[in-house]
Structure to design on (1472 residues):
């Protein structure tokens, strides 16, 4: 039983953490910190927690929070804000899982360029361990500070990892067309997020220049250069790597879209192959890459769909080889609140504390 | 650990039963029976169950089903179809929870009038126990065959029970304006249920003549005549009953509406009071009536909303006393797939087998 | 050809006015006034007007607006704000149609009680003509200032007018359960109006105490006391009035609900009848009441649905007599942006200037 | 004033044709033919047409239809079904606009391969004129039989035409990731189109192998080989063509997605450029290409969004040059029922009969 606190409890990521953690058999929730709602009773803001263990909790201010009493702190704060608060919490006894983008880059020029913010704590950033479990499981187990990946990034990387090191992919050709539910935009008051502006419509935004482009490309290139060693990545059945290719760096083009669903990301990825392949070869590649993974499922007779993963921590992936154009289409679906944020964070927590990796994460999709 | 089978696994109610039961700590799922999909692998139809305990299951035909091996069978079949199949299963060793309307009435003329179907098994119908837990808990524990209540009915009865026996309500004045998500209409292929016909619109249907009118009125009048004895119903703090009133029978007017949400029912009820009351008195009445209930929550500072219960087995209820018109407005919200169907069925199962009533039902609403 | 200006062009009501007016054959749009967007090009904010007559317009500040050049001004401003600005515009040459609640009441105590705002211009308020065409057509034609009705109010009054003066209705029994699309809440930045908070859910709000209660009741009682004389209201086929009843005043109970649709209101109304009636009698009553009305349609073989009116200025109404409980259920549907706001305003404009009443308003619902 | 009939009136395309045509100032609707609803009154099936000119119409069977009395017939029938019925109508006096895929190909092997259907009337197919106005305006004016383009195809071609002949595009690199509203799938009873299956979710379907792939590629290559001569295509400001490139053929990869909106298509296209360009050059290219077009709008400071075109016949397009990867991203949005089907058909009708091209098509998007 570990003691866990959440800083930033009233955003969507914080709500989802509370929902998952209060039912986790090895977790006792200690403090729920909120700037905007300090002093309020939790169930007065979130009536969905009536009747649960959370019924008695009040939200507290960060000033009243004593991090030393927690074994683990989740920081669920906006980018730019998190770096200072998280830095203050580091080294005060608790492990930390940060949900923001602030600690996902060791090369801070990239962060600073794409986020348009100065990083004020480079030494902390460089100690952070990137929390994409399927890529980085062993380092996560020993981390002090975990940088939980972004939702678009998780959906995209899980779809790309199996192919990029095989030598079969033209690494300069990767195009990611991603579609996200509106909860991914958070709870901030923007007129573009009003129901009347977002319902029954669809749009692209930030084509080619969205921040998550940089995170996908950065992590992909770290992976290509051998900086991660998860079991999946070492998979024995993988085709021997093409050395020339390993020298290459991936360059991705990423266009996100806002779709009128509450939760879920569907990422459609296009990769030119260097030569002929087959549907069977691609299925085998993907299946074997993830054969030991709990939360990544390769579909062969159907295609991923948000409704089959929303409410669960699973990612579903299908690949389609097009022999007409020698391209691979990879489609991945996940729940941006779960595998794309809070579910992945709980998966990281389970690794950190030696619990079974799927503890508290066994729910299947809520359908219908 | 009990062995449980589901007859009619591929409708929405069946899917939801599978979702709940495969994670229930005291349940082993034995057979999944389906007419339309017998012989198919479950995850080929419902990819959301990949990675779960259900991954290996195949659907089987009713002809291949041996009911003697199950401790409990859920029958999730259409009205009119269920009565024959369920009757065949009764007395073959397993307890049965029937999800249809076929066994909810002991007075079969009412059933036959409103359902337009002959009841071919009156002796079985009369042995069935009505499965609204908050009304009938003690009898449920000893039942052989439980008739699980309808979704509209559960939402409405839970809102009406506290007031109807107090003598304060004009029992002829009850109006129920209910709004249901589309999953309540099931999975049948009707053009009126197509996305393009149902999205971004709203309609009433069957005003005053919907079948569930009869179930609400029938159960309410049985309750008024003292035929149920749950703890809630015996609540000590209840106002002493007005004897004249007890002789009365309730007459309700019920109008359902179809709203473009996937799951959830919101029921708005209007009751004329016989005299002056106050918001405080009404709150106290409702709060005390359900004070020992796990799954019914009385809100006092906010109003029920589908998003706060969808994905959970909770019903949230608020009452609003209008002193201008001396009326009581009661608003209840529940998830039609959970407390309105499969969740309530699992609650019944827990009672039947002596498990904690909320076992496997502790999830809070999936929000956002 | 008349010159028309809009004060408050960038709210939803203003946008809808622009959409209708730029295609009206007798209208030239003169000035578009906006506080928040003065100086901006219209199509930079509303790209949907590219390619239309509105393409070249810029929004201007109220300070730069010369009302003398317009024949008609629409004021589409928030309640409380409109009264001052509209008052300043009165008497400067242009006729005015005000979309707010500020001029809908001659009895200002009612306004002040329900809106919680002082009315600073009682003399102007008392000169305003209530713009429900079907009730007040003759006075509208000669008005200087028209108070355009609220959306909930229009949907409800059109459903109630045929029955209330017949002597058949118990005027103290009227219950209105109304459901509105989210555009009815306007474009203001409230977290409760975010997509993620409003999609796939449903709630009631302000039961019994919503402002529009007072407007419905106020206008209904003015109508009962003979203060309006539209053709519809004088309909010859109407049952002779019960004198006792005419002395009565109506008391209504109104509960609005927010449903996840963009536009549209469905109002379900319940009225106790004083004696037996029949479906035929009710149909005949409603049909004859509106037989000369362009924009009110009585359905007899189907029920109103938002999708059949959204995008049009029509109201569809069905009545259902329930002989079990001697109640009348009336269901009305309209588009809150059209007949519930801007369409009705254009209808008023047509009357004011002697254009055919349906000019510019002939679109049928946009379905699918 | 021309006399127009519709064969296949009760599908979504037929409904939309009726909606547009009954308000067209030069059209008299003659016969409405329907197989499933022959003999029924139109407003009993589509209550939205009450109060309009269509109020009195009955649907008739094809057997009772005399094509000689019409000046123009729209055939709105399923692929494979249309070819026989349309062929019978050809040469009987009326011009024909066919909404199906049956007459869009002169090279029938392509049709037969992708549609999996034998073409039984090759001589008729070869006479048909492809009805993408912006590509083929002059031939359309003199056609006897017009093959109205598909919705995905219109959205994609309008986005691709400006760039493909410039020599700047790598014609083998074109990737189209398209997202369609559900009305595009028609009104057929498939469980995958039920509200509960389609709401709040998202999926890709038929990646790389959707029929519309072949239509996009086929028309694009005909255009590249100089077979169309619309004004747009001859645009003087166009970069001189790269001759090598003209010998090339385009090969496209097309992946459609189903999104939970009622109407609208958003198509996101990715093209590798052969060298460096700039945002300004691309904007200028697109703007000049369509400078004489009524219904195609190039956005430079914002991105296309379905809500800004749904309900209108406009297509909005933006292009984004990414200098990091030397790719062009083109995003187009249109209403699949209007510019993607019935609106484009009316545009074709206007050309055929010499009416102003935008007659009856001036509505701007219905927003909110």
């Amino acid at each position: 039983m570990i003691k866990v606190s959440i800083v930033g409890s009233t955003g969507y990521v914080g709500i989802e953490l509370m929902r998952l953690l209060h039912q986790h058999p090895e977790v006792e929730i200690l403090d729920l910190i909120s700037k905007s709602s300090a002093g309020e009773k939790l169930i007065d803001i979130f009536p969905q927690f009536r009747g649960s263990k959370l019924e008695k909790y009040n939200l507290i201010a960060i000033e009243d929070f004593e991090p030393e009493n927690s074994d683990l702190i989740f920081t669920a704060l906006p980018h730019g804000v998190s770096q200072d608060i998280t830095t203050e919490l580091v080294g005060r006894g608790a492990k930390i899982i940060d949900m923001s983008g602030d600690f996902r880059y060791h090369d801070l020029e990239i962060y600073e360029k794409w986020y348009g913010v100065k990083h004020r704590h480079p030494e902390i950033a460089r100690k952070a361990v990137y929390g994409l479990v399927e890529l980085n499981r062993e380092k996560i187990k020993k981390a002090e500070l975990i940088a939980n990946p972004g939702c678009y990034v998780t959906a995209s990387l899980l779809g790309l990892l199996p192919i990029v090191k095989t030598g079969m992919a033209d690494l300069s050709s990767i195009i990611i067309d991603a579609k996200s539910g509106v909860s991914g935009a958070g709870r901030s008051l923007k007129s573009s997020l009003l129901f009347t502006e977002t319902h029954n419509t669809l749009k692209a935004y930030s084509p080619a220049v969205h921040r998550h482009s940089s995170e996908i490309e950065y992590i992909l290139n770290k992976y290509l250069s051998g900086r991660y060693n998860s079991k999946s990545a070492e998979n024995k059945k993988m085709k021997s790597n093409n050395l020339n290719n390993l020298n290459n760096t991936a360059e991705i083009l990423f266009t996100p879209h806002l779709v009128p669903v509450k939760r879920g990301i569907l990422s459609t990825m296009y990769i030119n192959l260097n030569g002929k392949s087959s549907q069977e070869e691609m299925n085998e590649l993907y299946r074997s890459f993830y054969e030991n993974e709990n939360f990544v499922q390769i579909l062969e007779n159907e295609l991923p769909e948000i409704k089959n993963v929303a409410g669960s921590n699973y990612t579903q992936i299908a690949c389609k080889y097009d022999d007409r154009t020698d391209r691979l289409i990879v489609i991945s679906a996940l729940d941006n609140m779960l595998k794309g944020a809070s579910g992945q964070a709980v998966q990281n927590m389970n690794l950190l504390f030696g619990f079974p990796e799927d503890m508290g994460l066994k729910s299947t999709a809520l359908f219908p």
